[in-house]
Amino acid sequence: MRTHMITILIILVFLLVGCETNSNQESFVDHSAIVSLEDRCDYERRQLSFDADGGYATFESFNGTMTLYEINANEPMSLTVSSPRGQSNFKVVLVDRYDRIVVVDQNNEVTLSEGTYRLRLVGENATGSVFVSIDSDAFQSVTQA
Asked: What is the domain count for the chain?
């Protein structure tokens, strides 16, 4: 009985913590949607596993924008974003405190200067996976959003 209650609780948390639905596919190129503090996305399936050192996201029929991490770096730090080759219709972006967007080339390491960033996933009917590795010795705080 206790196992069933825990399972139901986990399912409810994933349902309540997910993205706001009714997103549209225009968010893939819409600057205001990408820099928004609000997550607006829908998907058929997704699986997320993140902590302060990194993690992964897998998704099917993903549309919209979703924050993977909020990063507050107190000195230069690096992160690596990778995904299997041949996937399309999604991108990983960094948004700085001035709402400037940097598209993170997948399978590359990015060095961040001091500052506040949001690492976001942006997709248009995308199916795929993203892996993130973070140099956890150089940050003040990294929060999985």
From this structure: 1
